[in-house]
Structures
1.
Amino acid sequence: MKRYGLALFLMAIVSDVFAGQTIFFEAIAEMEVPAQGPAKVIQIFDIERAAKNEAVQTRLKNEVAQRIARWEFQPAEVDGAAVDTRTFVRVKMEAQVNSDNTFTVRVLDATTGPRARYRVRPAYPKAAVKAGAEGYVILMLQLDPKGDVISVLTEKSDTSPGSGAMRNTFEAVAARSAKLWRFQNEIVRGQPVPSRVRLPFQFCMSGASSWCGRLPDTLLGEIKEDLIALDPAAKLMTDVRETEG
């Protein structure tokens, strides 16, 4: 894979953040990945989560689109031949607020696959709150071509010590929420295709004594991860992760 060097960009700061802050955010880009030729950004979603100011949103969309335009993608193949593909790229970014009232932004990671267009987060079970129980559930969802969830399987789950009886409750609540999610699938040769995604849910309490906060970093990163496509039709071929310096 090709790796591009660190390419930071600056944008005007908005009024509700302060120098020294580090902000983590995501953007979703809808992409055309043709059988031949470079990929093209169609539109950018979810920038409004990063900034409330519309002018900043517009500038950030342009910067994200320009960054993605430099990446290389591999389209899907049918009978061994590349075909036109439409995919969604989820880009994770970090913005550091500088003393001169600008943002310095870098790409942390990016993945391709379907886009979640409707989400339902599970409520923390009252019984678990009363018992002080914490846990996590990692689900595997099977999506039909329309983007509906047709199968939910628990891939991994665990609970805090002494609350193992709540594991089934956490799994059931997570599964009920996941079944309500709706997706916009990738399109291969003009037709939407089924997909599989991994979806984690956390049931964690705040505070220094939180069991979730004491999990190993590798596991903590896994359960904090958002949606991940298990078999994306289009693949990102560039190592986009940027490091400081």
2.
Amino acid sequence: MNNAECRVPQDLHIHTTFSHLDSAVAEQQTPELIARIRHAKVIGISDHFEHFYERFESYRTTLKQYGFHTGTEVDGAEYTQEAAQLDFEYYIYHCRDYRSEYRGIENLLATGKPVIIAHPMVLETDLNKVPPECYIEINNRYVWKNDWRNKLAPFTGRFNFVIGSDSHQPNWLNQNVARYVAGELNVKESILFD
């Protein structure tokens, strides 16, 4: 079986050494390595906004060099206005159960770019308060730590879902657990980019 046959359709939640303040990111997790592994047909990098935004042009240029989609992970409302002003293709968003965090979603949606709500169970996001045009992510890193069946099943008809790895290290570049959960929930994955 060749690498193309093993690839998952899409992974938009991958961190690299641009997230240099995140202690979970291994020094080997470079854009170059991800390009060599090519574990997904569609790859997007979504490093932590607050770690690199002052070097945005370098970030975007590097990702485009490898054919990656340019995303970012925004940790709550504090940075949403700044993130919305830069030319990202999509946003991964941490939404805690605070009024300001739900308003932060509106800042990102106003860009017209996809907004993916990450870790809703860990962050205690009230999915009833999330606009239905957002995507909900099922990823390997946190989904297994919660009662995903009872937390996500009521919303499978309201939202579109994406599957991600939330990879911080090369050995995390897979989606096995997330794909199992999506299958159990009978969720069809939304592919955001061709």
3.
Amino acid sequence: MTAPSTVGPLQITFVKRRDGQARLICTRPDGTTTETPLRPGFGVAHDLAHYVAETGLGLTEGFYGLVAQGHAIQSFERPRSERPPVGTQALQAEAVAMALQHIAAGTGTAHQLRPFVEASCEGSGVPAPTGLTEALAEALWARYHVLMAEWKALPPRSHLVLPFPG
């Protein structure tokens, strides 16, 4: 079992419970935390995809950036009208996260990631992330694939701890 430790501005900890369920814990440098149980089959995959998108593209105002700034995870689970305001980077991160999950589900390939993100961003009324080249899209997919494999290989009662540079 990997024990959580303070790393970087935000420490992201995915906990694999004994019963197979998962929990997300985010610890800020000041020691405050926010956490939530993750839905089976979607939660870990989606939140790891956000991690890959935000760190790979250098986004500081996506989901994890907003959590690092002090927002509680639960505030994003509320009805849309009650959620914290999100900007361009949050919508871009969501587009990349969803694209990674589509590829993982077998409904696309890494070569289709960039066009999928561009279309999703256009539909949300924001520009596609700058610097999202074909090579970066493939690197994002590769990183996501590795992190998902690491998660799946973890035994129950273990942690996957990731630093978010913010």
